[in-house]
Design a protein that fits this description.
Length: 510
């Protein structure tokens, strides 16, 4: 029986043939980065938990300081209890216990940084556990701990810790987008699945994964995949390829190994090389809240909750829309008045533009906007589309000649869409959801895109805060469908918060 090294030697010694596949061993110039740079990157990534520890320590000190100040300012507890001084060593012990609990619950593990909600859940749970331990400990030891300091420190500690981790995450994402703190990734699987994962990792550069190569099944002999990922060998050679390319992570996609025993052997072979193995099931665009893994008989089963499209239309979201839009109308009433005067003063034309759009369940409604174009703008659409060579779906163009001078300002900061708050009050739109489209665009929908019509259209949505008009049609559709299938109130609040950043940054607006 030939060994892996025998097979590699044979493949290196001979050119590519249907029997042997492409030569595998890379030349010195083909390895993507010098070893010194990779060692430096790993050292930089190793400092992230240290930075998180420092951030947590700072936020805990702030929380205890806030607790001490509020203890004196707010007369909630008896004066004799409030005036009792707290020894510094007690404060040190409190913060020390707090940090230890975060550590024990996994708050400084490398995998929690930069993506997902686990990081925030851990610091919140750690705060609750610490509060419980302190309360129980003081009761059992009959120690008179300041109730004001206890209450205000932990109540303020939750938002402060979450804020600190959120700021740290922004720095991590920024560094990753600039090509730092990256993990070198080898993909294993069928070429089509390799391309799917590579496309996601390239698109979501903030995740910090740098694809350096792939291995495919022994029956595949190509040197690169359709998307350009270089194939260094087959999955029998995965250990050698990972070692040669000095990879940090191995992504295992569908079709990578013939049997579970082959995959288990690969994991054993990589055990001593400090390489993380990630299994990527053949599902995509599913939020973490809908995924759970339950091992049964040693077999890890991935459970997917049903899509949440029905939850996105229930009364809780409707109450949020009515209350939120009413408050926003009051808050932006001066801006609404100023914009109306600007539009009318320019050409004495109509202030509002009412366009028929398709809403929930395919029902048309009048969508309100401040008029930003010349009065006969609709009659020029076909001519402009033909001149630009664009499709009808999600049609937009930069430097649109139909836009009026005040309209450019209104569009830049999305002030033209503020009248849609009245659509939200009337129930034809929602604050957050897929953008409403005209019937001509809806007529071009494929089967999947009709899922957009199962929820109320929104003033803002996931693709608006992910690039607005700069996104490709495919990405805009993908984000809309992701929102419909994975709706949650937390996601709505996050989108609204990100909307302000996208609007005031004027990113992708035209």
């Amino acid at each position: 029986m030939s060994t892996t090294s025998d097979r590699l030697s044979a493949r290196v010694a001979s050119p590519a043939t249907p029997e042997t596949g492409p030569p595998l061993r890379p030349s010195a110039g083909e390895v993507a980065a010098p070893s010194v740079a990779r060692v430096a990157a790993r050292r930089a990534r190793a400092r992230i938990p240290v930075a998180a520890f420092a951030v947590d320590l700072l936020m805990m000190l702030c929380a205890v300081t806030v607790g001490g100040l509020l203890r004196e300012v707010l007369p909630i507890f008896p004066q004799n209890v409030m005036s009792t001084p707290v020894p510094p060593m007690v404060v040190v012990a409190l913060i020390g216990l707090w940090l230890v609990v975060v550590l024990v619950l996994g708050g400084y593990r490398a995998r929690v940084f930069g993506a997902g909600t686990d990081e925030f859940k851990m610091v919140i749970n750690s705060t609750l556990v610490t509060a419980g331990l302190v309360g129980i400990g003081c009761y059992l030891a009959q120690y008179e701990f300041s109730r004001g300091l206890f209450l205000f420190s932990f109540v303020s500690g939750v938002p402060l810790l979450v804020l600190g981790r959120a700021v740290l995450r922004l720095f991590i994402k920024g560094a990753r987008r600039r090509g730092r703190l990256l993990q070198r990734v080898v993909l294993a699987g069928l070429p089509s699945h390799v391309d799917e994962i590579a496309a996601v990792l390239r698109r979501e550069s903030w995740l910090g994964y740098q694809v350096v190569g792939a291995v495919t099944p022994a029956t595949d002999f190509r040197e690169t995949t359709a998307s350009g990922v270089k194939v260094w060998g087959n999955t029998d050679d995965v250990t050698w390829v990972v070692d040669t390319l000095d990879a940090d992570t191995l992504f295992v996609a569908a079709g990578a190994f013939n049997t579970t025993a082959d995959m288990r052997q690969a994991v054993w072979d990589l055990e001593e090389k400090d390489v993380q193995v990630v299994v990527a099931p053949k599902v995509s665009d599913v939020s973490s809240e809908r995924v759970s893994i339950r091992p049964v008989g040693g077999l890890p089963l991935v459970h997917l909750e049903p899509p949440r499209v029905r939850q996105a239309s229930r009364w809780g979201k409707r109450i949020f829309d009515v209350v939120g839009s009413s408050l926003l109308i009051l808050a932006f009433s001066p801006v609404l008045l100023f914009a109306a005067v600007r539009v009318w003063a320019h050409d004495r034309g109509p202030v509002l533009f009412r366009q028929r759009r398709v809403g929930k369940d395919g029902i048309e409604f009048a969508c309100f906007k401040f008029r930003t174009m010349v009065i006969d703008a609709e009659s020029l659409v076909a001519e402009l589309r033909e001149a630009q060579g664009a499709g009808a779906l999600l049609f937009k163009m930069k430097d649109d000649p139909r836009i009026t001078p005040p309209g450019r300002w209104l569009r830049r900061y999305s002030v033209d869409e503020l009248p849609q708050l009245f659509n939200v009050v009337l129930g034809t739109m929602s604050l957050v959801g897929p953008r409403p489209q005209v019937q001509a665009e809806v007529d071009m929908y494929d089967t999947a895109m009709h899922r957009r019509l199962r929820v109320r259209p929104g003033m803002t949505g996931l693709w608006q805060v992910s690039g607005r008009s700069d996104l490709s049609l495919e990405d805009a559709i993908r984000l809309d469908l992701y929102y419909v299938d994975n709706w949650s109130m937390t996601q709505d609040l996050s989108i609204m918060a990100r909307t302000f950043g996208a609007v005031f940054g004027s990113s992708g607006a035209y």
